[in-house]
Amino acid sequence: MLVLPAESNFDLNAFAFKDSTCIKITRLSESASSETGYTQLFQDSAITLASLFISRGKDLIYHYGLGRNLIEAGHTYLVETSAPVSLQMGSLYEKERGSGSYVTTSNGSTTGDEFYFAVPFENGFYGEQDIQINAYDSLTRVILDVYINNHWMQLGEWQINPDETITWNGAENGNVSYASVFRVRSMDGKKISVFESNAIITEYSGFSGVFTMPSALDGNSAGKKFIVALPEPSEQNNVFDPFNNQNFQGKQSHIYLFASQPTAVRVKDLATNGSIINRNFILGTDSYRDLAINEQRWNLMLNNSNGSAPYLKIEADAPVSVIVGSTVGNRTMFCGSTRINQVNHTIIDSIVPVINPGEQITSQIAVHNSGNLSISQASAEIITGKGLQIISAVYLDEENNTEIPEKFN
Q: How many Å apart are CA 104 and CA 113, to the nearest integer?
């Protein structure tokens, strides 16, 4: 589900991780809304904006010519797919300079082993695409490719150790810019994270617009360890600091930390292991902290990063969530929870993308409780597309294959 504030139209791109992925984009709202409150959604009369099959590594904008100015301000949209995809929304065709975000993988996390994405760039400003990669495991082999002339062209290959980072940018590689899809893979299945940006490292201006939520080492939105890229500081003279009741002075980058339970937090700059940034503090229940990094310290981190962008290492005794921010204007983003989901489900039998009339299929979903609390009075809701009818649904105990008398909606 996508909602766009009432400012301007946005572009929407989607990237597939499996061949023959069916993607359908519909508009659910009949009229645009800029008011606070409820929005009426009409799925039965939804307007279909795009419906197609896309292949692994392909995208809407560059491969199929769809997605530009697709999302109208104030409307609500639904994206349905037959297999996981990642989405990119924003100014992807014009006014792209000075922004960036973490890249999501097929499970919605920014920590994984396979990433497909684009780095939008403005015509006439070449060499400003930046791609930053960090690893969490020893001897992680990473390959960066771009899709050019109907094949993948390798741009670089590295071996990265824990807490190490690398940066690729177009300025140092022939002043190139690629209007296509990039691919980053960890060849041994080890976890990495990718941060893409435009004109943040290569063209420092102090007017960037970044607001993004990285995942923890284990892939959850909340966790005990993060390695986060720190974008360039932006002008913050008009930004209010609620902790001292004054506006920030000069240029700042921000790390926002959120906790649902009390925890100690430790933050160090990655390159020097704390010689430049070394902060320790306590977060209380349902509280947050804004760690602001000024321009002087950011430049010190940049100069000690051996050509890579500045990074911070964040460790906590209990799970926290993190937002990376550096912006002079309005920004929107989707947030994850400050609590770790301890009930997870796995699809055992995948649902086929096309079902012919009269055919029946069976889908099994395993639910695992990794927490220390038992589940009782459980209920589940199954939502199907038009033309599908659920014949029966039951809970089964995995150990003895017996039915559990719980409720299905």
A: 10
Burial call 34-47: b when 16+ CB within 10 Å, e when fewer: eeeeeeeeeeeebe
Q: What are phi and psi of 62, to 5 degrees?
A: -85, -35
Average the pLDDT over 39-57 and give the result. Answer: 88
Q: How far apart are the first and last CA of the chain?
A: 21
Of 127, 132, 160, 119, nearest to 302 by C-alpha is: 132
How far is Cα 341 from Cα 263, in angstroms, rounded to an integer?
18
H-helix or E-strand spanning residue 300: helix 295-303
DSSP string, 102-120: EPP-TTS-S-BSEEEE---
Instruction: Taking residues 299-308, report their average pLDDT.
Output: 83
Contacts within 8 Å (CB) and 24+ apart, 352-358: 353/20, 353/21, 353/22, 353/53, 353/82, 353/83, 354/22, 355/388
- Rounded to 5 degrees, φ, ψ at 135 are -120, 160
Report d(CA 183, CA 163) in Å as an integer: 21
Q: Does 198 have pLDDT greater than 60?
A: yes
- Residue 29 is classified by DSSP as B
Would you say residue 402 has pLDDT above 90?
no
List Cβ neighbours of 365 (8 Å cut-off, separation of 6 or more).
Answer: 345, 346, 347, 348
User: Could you give phi then psi for residue 74, rounded to 5 degrees?
Assistant: 85, 0
Report the predicted TM-score, pTM, of the whole model to 2 decimal places: 0.81
Q: Phi and psi (nearest 5°) for 230?
A: -110, 110
Q: Residue 115 pairs with which residues in a beta bridge? A: 184
